[in-house]
């Protein structure tokens, strides 16, 4: 049992990172309205900027956090990140100013960029032949956290929009205390390397794309998919509150159900359909499903129909692993690591671009001066992006 405690700690830490992403979604609109006194439409811009800030911090500091763990060890980086995460959640819950929310979100984004350190820790304590399974465990923890986060945020949000952040701060602090007693250092001093700022540039992986031009078009497809897919975390709460008058609790439940559907697709269906139908067919089918479903959401007027459509919405996620499989097969073995670095950076950029684009569209089509009242406009744009990706992928196939 003692030997398993570090693994339990890592799993909980990654889950907390993911919970931090989903926790804010159901309660942020109401919290911002209470601080700014603005309408739901007006607060959408602040929501987009906060999500943009979080994504930029994760994208920018991921390599830095990983390099710090190579220099000073895994233990101090993970424990420090948890303590800072607890503090940022506490500040977010107490904040009475919009600017304090940004400060807290910056810290949360930086401390949430510990995914690479968690994987490095798992690699340190796992035999080479079992590392794939360990990485799968870390990925599963991230997925579970993304289900728990919105549900926790929505349910605790019924007590008040600040309650979820106090709960998250307490859990992060308790996990840091647990780690202090059960987490040993796994990186020996003689294996640590000098910290180099040149290795911390998140754009370097994307710049290396010119060294693998054969998959350049595929990377554009993946980027379009990422921007379109991130419409859900960007404006789901805004859309459902505006169109269906969802409470924070209902927003959290709906996001949790959608996350569960995605987890079932990612954990089960993908393993069946890709071997049977092949990556190209699955990727194109996934992109077309996304295009049709996202455009359909703009016309939905029934809550029941929205929940019925969720399993179909989740099916669209099959496009991502299929696209990655296509690219991996077209890259030699000695460039696989380089490819994964590029893909991680491109997906991070998608998370940066999407919140700004989608919340801007929501604001533009729900404001009193809007030419047409259309709260589903962000989903229509996401559908167009998916359709563009489908057309580009079809041309690349030819």
Question: What are the main properties of this structure?
Answer:
single chain, 398 residues, mainly alpha, Growth Hormone, Chain: A, 16 helices, 79% helix
What does this structure look like?
- The chain has 398 residues and is mainly α.
- The chain has 2 domains: 1-185, Growth Hormone, Chain: A, CATH 1.20.1250; 203-398, MFS general substrate transporter like domains (Growth Hormone, Chain: A, Up-down Bundle), CATH 1.20.1250.20.
- It has helices spanning 5-36, 40-72, 74-94, 98-111, 115-125, 131-157, 163-182, 204-207, 216-229, 231-244, 248-277, 279-297, 303-315, 319-329, 336-364, 377-397.
- Helix 12 runs antiparallel to helix 14 (319-329).
- The N and C termini lie far apart (55 Å).
- The mean pLDDT is 82.
Q: CATH superfamily name of the largest domain?
A: MFS general substrate transporter like domains
| Second-tier CATH architecture of the largest domain | Up-down Bundle
* CATH classification class of the largest domain: Mainly Alpha
Q: What is the number of independent domains?
A: 2
Q: What structural class do helix, strand and pairing data support?
A: mainly alpha
Q: Compute the gyration radius: what is it?
A: 21 Å
Q: Which residue ranges are poorly predicted, with pLDDT under 50 across at least 5 consecutive positions?
A: none
Describe the SSE topology.
Layout lengths: L4 H32 L3 H33 L1 H21 L3 H14 L3 H11 L5 H27 L5 H20 L21 H4 L8 H14 L1 H14 L3 H30 L1 H19 L5 H13 L3 H11 L6 H29 L12 H21 L1
Helix pairs in contact: 1-2, 1-5, 1-6, 1-7, 1-10, 1-11, 2-3, 2-4, 2-5, 2-10, 2-15, 3-4, 3-7, 5-6, 6-11, 9-14, 9-15, 9-16, 10-11, 10-15, 11-12, 11-13, 12-13, 12-14, 12-16, 15-16
């Amino acid at each position: 049992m003692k030997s398993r405690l570090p693994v339990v700690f890592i799993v909980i830490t990654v889950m907390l990172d993911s919970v931090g992403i989903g926790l804010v979604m159901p309660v942020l609109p109401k919290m911002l309205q209470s601080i700014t006194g603005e309408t739901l439409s007006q607060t959408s811009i602040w929501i987009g900027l906060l999500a943009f800030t979080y994504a930029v911090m994760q994208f920018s500091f991921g390599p830095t956090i990983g390099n710090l763990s190579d220099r000073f060890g895994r233990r101090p980086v993970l424990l420090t990140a948890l303590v800072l995460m607890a503090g940022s959640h506490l500040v977010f819950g107490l904040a009475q100013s919009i600017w304090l929310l940004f400060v807290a979100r910056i810290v949360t984004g930086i401390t949430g960029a510990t995914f690479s350190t968690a994987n490095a820790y798992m690699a340190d304590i796992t035999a080479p032949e079992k590392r794939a399974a360990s990485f799968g465990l870390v990925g599963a923890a991230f997925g579970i956290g993304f289900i728990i986060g919105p549900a926790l945020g929505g349910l605790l949000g019924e007590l008040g929009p600040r309650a979820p952040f106090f709960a998250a701060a307490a859990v992060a602090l308790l996990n840091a205390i647990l780690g202090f007693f059960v987490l040993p250092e796994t990186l020996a001093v003689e294996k640590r390397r000098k910290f180099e700022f040149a290795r911390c540039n998140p754009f370097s992986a994307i710049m290396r794309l010119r060294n693998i031009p054969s998959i350049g078009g595929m990377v554009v497809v993946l980027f379009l998919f990422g921007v379109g897919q991130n419409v859900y975390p960007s404006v789901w709460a805004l859309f459902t509150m505006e169109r269906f008058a969802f409470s924070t609790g209902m927003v959290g439940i709906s996001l949790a159900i959608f996350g569960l559907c995605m987890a079932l697709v990612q954990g089960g269906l993908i393993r069946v359909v890709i071997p049977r139908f092949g990556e190209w067919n699955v990727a194109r089918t996934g992109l077309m499903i996304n295009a049709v479903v996202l455009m359909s959401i703009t016309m939905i007027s029934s809550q029941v129909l929205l929940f019925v459509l969720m399993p179909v919405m989740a099916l669209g996620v099959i496009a991502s692993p299929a696209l990655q499989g296509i690219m991996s097969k077209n890259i030699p073995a000695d460039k696989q690591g380089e490819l994964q670095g590029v893909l991680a950076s491109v997906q991070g950029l998608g998370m940066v671009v999407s919140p700004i684009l989608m919340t801007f569209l929501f604001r533009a089509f729900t404001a009193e001066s809007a030419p047409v009242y259309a709260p589903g406009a962000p989903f229509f744009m996401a559908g167009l992006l998916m359709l563009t990706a489908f057309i580009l992928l079809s041309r690349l196939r030819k």
